[in-house]
C-alpha cells in the first residue's frame, strides 16, 4: 500500500471511530436520562441532578501495563488522561479482579493491590492512587470476579444518580458493563482515541437540549 492510500485509510478509520463514539455515547446518555411518571425524559432540572459522571476503569492493560520483565507502568496516554479528568474534577474509580484472599474489605484488598503494583512500578511518576479515593472495587468472593456483574452493580449503586462510564481493554468486559447501564468504551482500539475523550465525558454532565 502506498503512503497516500495508507494515510487516507487511517483518516477514514479515525472518522468512523469518532462517529462510533458519538453514536454510542448519544444512545447511552439518552437512555440514562431521568424519566418522569409517564416514562418521558424528565425536566432540565432533573437532568442536571443526573449530572456528575463517574469514570470507572479496569486496571491491568487499561491504565497500567505489565512488561515482560514483570515491571509495571502507565499505558501510553493514561497518566495525562487521568490528569485531565482530575483537573475537571471528574471522579474516577477502579473495578478490578484481585484474589479475594487479599483482604476482608475493599479497602484492605485495595491496599494490597497498591503494594503489589508499587513494588514493580517503573516510571517518572507514581501511579495516581489518591485520585481513586475509596472507589476501588474488588471481588469479595471468587463468584464476584468479572465478568460476573457484581462489581459493576456495586459501582452503580455507589454512584447515586450520576451517569457512570466504564473503560477497559477487553470487549467482554465492555459489553457486560454496557448491559448494566454504563457508558462503555474499549481502550486501545486502532484508529480510535486511546480513551473516551474527556470532552465526551463532560457532555454526560450536561442536560440534554430541550
Automatic annotation (TrEMBL):
InterPro entries with a match to the protein in the record: HAD-like_sf, HAD_sf
Gene3D superfamilies the record matches: HAD superfamily/HAD-like
Name assigned to this protein: HAD family hydrolase
Amino acid at each position: 500500500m502506498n503512503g497516500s492510500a495508507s494515510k487516507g485509510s487511517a483518516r477514514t478509520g479515525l472518522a468512523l471511530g469518532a462517529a462510533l463514539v458519538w453514536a454510542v455515547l448519544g444512545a447511552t446518555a439518552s437512555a440514562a436520562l431521568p424519566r418522569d411518571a409517564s416514562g418521558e425524559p424528565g425536566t432540565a432540572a432533573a437532568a442536571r441532578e443526573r449530572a456528575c459522571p463517574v469514570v470507572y476503569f479496569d486496571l491491568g492493560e487499561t491504565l497500567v501495563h505489565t512488561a515482560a520483565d514483570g515491571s509495571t507502568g502507565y499505558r501510553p496516554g493514561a497518566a495525562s488522561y487521568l490528569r485531565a479528568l482530575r483537573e475537571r474534577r471528574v471522579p474516577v474509580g477502579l473495578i478490578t479482579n484481585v484474589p479475594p484472599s487479599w483482604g476482608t474489605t475493599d479497602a484492605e484488598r485495595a491496599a494490597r493491590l497498591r503494594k503489589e503494583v508499587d513494588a514493580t512500578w517503573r516510571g517518572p511518576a507514581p501511579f495516581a492512587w489518591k485520585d481513586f479515593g475509596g472507589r476501588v472495587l474488588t471481588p469479595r468472593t471468587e463468584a464476584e470476579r468479572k465478568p460476573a456483574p457484581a462489581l459493576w452493580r456495586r459501582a452503580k449503586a455507589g454512584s447515586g444518580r450520576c451517569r457512570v462510564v466504564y473503560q477497559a481493554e477487553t470487549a467482554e468486559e465492555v459489553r457486560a458493563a454496557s448491559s448494566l447501564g454504563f457508558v462503555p468504551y474499549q481502550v486501545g482500539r486502532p484508529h480510535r482515541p486511546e480513551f473516551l475523550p474527556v470532552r465526551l465525558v463532560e457532555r454526560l454532565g450536561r442536560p440534554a437540549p430541550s
